[in-house]
Amino acid sequence: MDDNLRWYALYVRSRWEKKVSELLDEKKIENYCPVQRLERNWSDRKKIILEPLFKSYVLVRLAPKAHIPVLQTDGVIGFVTFQAKPAVIRDEEIEAVKQFLQNYEHIQVERIDVNVNDEVTIMQGPLMQQTGQVMEISNRMVKVMLPSLGFALVAIDKNNLAKGSSQ
């Protein structure tokens, strides 16, 4: 595995997430378009569809200087940036999304602003030992922030959290 490769988020045209992922595959550019299985009901039938988890985003893994072929891909608007540079997403956050999708159905993704609240460690479940910020608690569920993406995944039981860092 090349230690020089980093994950980045691409902002893509609306409803082009899967198409951009296919085009990047054709270019042999490693990418990840997380999808969830949803059941849709029509008047005459039910159908299972794969819907992108993050609307208008595709994740790519590449060397810091290899951005040009990605930007030349149809449907790509640009990189998600932080302080005028493409924002790097930690490998642990990509793995957390993959684990979350393996273990949960009917996931709700919410766009959030990054704010600092209580630091917690998740003690059980697919995100076990991940440290993060609590964004909101309602009933028994908690929003867990993925800081690099600015998204929160909603489905963590607050009984599975411990206050403070695990370090």
Structural overview:
This protein is of the alpha+beta class. It has two domains: 6-89, NusG, N-terminal domain (Alpha-Beta Plaits, 2-Layer Sandwich); 92-163, SH3 type barrels (Roll). Helix content is 16%, strand content 43%. The protein contains three helices and 15 strands. It has helices spanning 17-26, 68-71, 91-103, and strands at residues 6-12, 31-32, 35-41, 46-52, 57-62, 76-79, 81-82, 85-86, 88-89, 108-111, 119-122, 131-138, 141-146, 151-157, 161-163. The chain has a six-stranded antiparallel beta sheet, with no helix packed on it. Strands 1, 2, 5, 6 and 9 form a five-stranded antiparallel beta sheet that branches. Strand 12 (131-138) and strand 13 form a beta hairpin. It starts with 5 loop residues before the first strand and ends with a strand. Residues 112-116 have low confidence and may be disordered.
Could you provide a short overview of the structure?
By secondary structure, the protein is an alpha+beta fold. Helix content is 16%, strand content 43%. The strands form 4 sheets. The chain has a 6-stranded antiparallel beta sheet with strand order 10-14-13-12-11-15, with no helix packed on it.
Please supply descriptive tags for the structure shown above.
167 residues; alpha+beta; SH3 type barrels; 2 domains; 16% helix
Q: Give the low-pLDDT segments.
A: 112-116
CATH architecture of the largest domain, by name, is: 2-Layer Sandwich
Helix content: 10-25%
Distance N to C terminus: 27 Å
Q: Beta-sheet strand percentage?
A: 35-45%
What is the overall number of helices? 3
